[in-house]
Amino acid sequence: MRIIDLSSPVDSEYYEPDPVEHTVLTPAEGARHMSEEMAEHFGLDFEVDDLPDGEFLSLDRLSLTTHTGTHVDAPSHYGARAAYRDGGPRHIDEMPLDWFHRPGLVLDLADAPTGAVGRETLEREFARIGREPEPMDIVLLHTGAQRHEGTPKYFTDFAGLDGAATNYLLDLGVKVIGTDAFSLDAPFTDIIARYRQTRDRSVLWPAHFAGRDREYCQLERLANLESLPSHGFTVICFPVKVARAGAGWARAVALVEES
């Protein structure tokens, strides 16, 4: 069994509209921090000089959104209402884990222009690979957006899905749709330009807003999808259990059987 890493990093050196802040306490700084915290919270005095080399443990602090790096969007990310259930949409910590350990398929959209692709594009891809997804399979979209990772173009140059394409996958029983792009929808710049031209509200983030009427999750900002066969592998993408959150980071991988 070969393990392929499908995750993009959380990197404070990458360009992000919401920048990542990453500070590090060195082991020496961590020793002083530990000594101060023990005194303040537990009334314990501890001399840093008693530690080997005067060091304890390093400590990383990060400030970032749950949509940085590879992550899973929960139904609560799409809005406050859920037409499909009482009590509102579920948060990421409430989602069933079996959604995130499933057979996968990859569709090649790398030649698609920036914007939103439709159902017919997905149908052609399923015909090309000779297989449609079974219910609960995870469908991954290889848009080629990873080539712009860490730059402003990562947020403006990629293909997403329109409403018909999204609902087509949900009609097939798919619960998790993944992409190597920043969003399952087209870029903000493309969406706003089309809306200003047409005043058609259906072009406004249709993939995300579909989640108000049908429960599903998006798996965004994947990597290395070009390394996968079109099908015959397993995706594992368990989201971090962030209480009451609309998304959770994931270390997504694929398990590919060696022949």
From TrEMBL:
Specify one Pfam family. Cyclase
Source organism's superkingdom? Bacteria
Sorted alphabetically, the Gene Ontology BP terms of this entry are: L-tryptophan catabolic process to kynurenine
> What are the GO MF terms of this UniProt record?
arylformamidase activity
InterPro entries linked to this entry: KFase/CYL, KFase_sf
- PANTHER family associated with the record: CYCLASE-LIKE PROTEIN 2
> What is the protein name stated in its UniProt record?
Kynurenine formamidase
